[in-house]
Each structure stands twice: as structure tokens, then as C-alpha cells.
Design a protein that fits this description.
Elements: H1 5-16, E1 23-24, H2 25-31, H3 38-47, E2 58-59, H4 72-81, E3 86-87, E4 90-91, H5 94-97
Parallel strand pairs: 1-2
Antiparallel strand pairs: 3-4
Helix pairs in contact: 2-3
Length: 101
Amino acid sequence: MPATDFARRVTRVLRRIPAGRVATYGDVAALAGRPGAARAVGQILRRADEPGLPYHRVVAAGGRLGGFGRSPQLKAQLLAAEGLAIRRGRISGFAGVRWFP
């Protein structure tokens, strides 16, 4: 379980992102109650290790893939398996797949 209240809220938001949709680190921060804390979300996700969470559905601003541990290629493959098109490190049609609950 994440250590801080904010980390727990980030995890709850992460669980809600549906397959085939993505949210930015900033979106997750805002939904978790800390607008502007996108970098903190990235750090939380980097350290998180809860199996089954869709970490790959959190992307950088503008639809850039962003980090994914040691394998950004795996992130692209997981998103492609959910039906998203990836071109040159970005999600094609990002606005149409961005998740807004």
C-alpha cells in the first residue's frame, strides 16, 4: 500500500482509468487533489509495485508516452494492445482517448 495519503489517492485514480483510455500525470495529480503535482505522481508511480494496476495508462503531456521503468517499449506495446495507436513516441488521436471522469 502506498505510504502517504496523496499516494493512496493517486492509486485510487489509477484504478479508475479504463482500458483504451489514458490520463496525463497532471490529470492524475489534479484528480488526486493536488493540481500541479505531476512530477510527484511520476515519482509515486515509479516506486509503486502493486500488481495489476494500469501504470501504462498514465502518459506525459500532449500524449507523449513518458517513462515506464526500464521499458518504454513495453508501455507502447501495452497501450497498442488496448487499441491505441502509437507514432514516434506519442499517442495518435490523444484528445479522443484522454480520460476525463
